[in-house]
Design brief:
Oligomer: single chain
Shape: globular
Number of strands: 6
Radius of gyration: 15 Å
Order of helices and strands: EHHEHEHEHEHE
Structural class: alpha/beta
Helix content: 25-40%
Length: 170
């Protein structure tokens, strides 16, 4: 679903966490250990409290799709009736894995698409009808370069900034 209302995007920066990468027993627990998860949950609750029953979420660096899949399931549990999820990753093997996981989601209220693409291209496409929520991982340097695009691609952007700085000084 697309909305004509365009509020300014809220960008929330997440600092690198120490000890990240510890093994987790399930996809759900890995998704909930993502540094962005508390902010994702607050956004879902806030939209639902304001009477929204549909949501569109884009994960511009989805990997195997764990965070996006968990987010759309949680949105459905909260009572959202129409949920669109778009996962993007540059790695074709990760996209294939995400598609297999999405195929196991039988709920007709949840529409999921996983594509191989680059972040900047996806953000340009999303600018026409901004998503409610954009999830993105990036180095500090990438985040600075993509910030303007991200603001046009979604009403709320949640960055997971990696410790790498793309060869530049932070």
């Amino acid at each position: 679903m697309h909305y004509s209302y365009r509020a300014p995007a809220g960008i929330i920066w997440m600092a690198p966490a120490s000890g990240w990468g510890m093994p987790a027993p399930s996809a759900q627990s890995r998704a909930e250990k993502d540094r962005r998860w508390p902010a994702v949950l607050r956004k879902l609750k806030g939209l639902h409290k304001r009477g929204r029953r549909s949501i569109r979420i884009v994960d511009a660096d989805c990997g195997t799709g764990e965070l996006l899949l968990h987010t759309v399931r949680r949105a459905r549990e909260m009572g959202f009736l129409a949920i669109e999820g778009r996962g993007i990753d540059a790695d074709p093997s990760l996209v294939a894995s995400a598609r297999r996981a999405a195929a196991r989601q039988p709920d007709p209220a949840i529409g999921l698409v996983f594509e191989q693409a680059e972040k900047d291209r996806v953000m340009r496409e999303e600018a026409e009808y901004p998503a409610d929520l954009l999830l993105c991982s990036a180095t500090d340097a990438e985040a600075r370069e993509l910030a303007a695009l991200a603001r046009t691609a979604a009403k709320t952007v949640l960055w997971d900034r990696t410790a790498k700085n793309g060869g530049e000084d932070a």
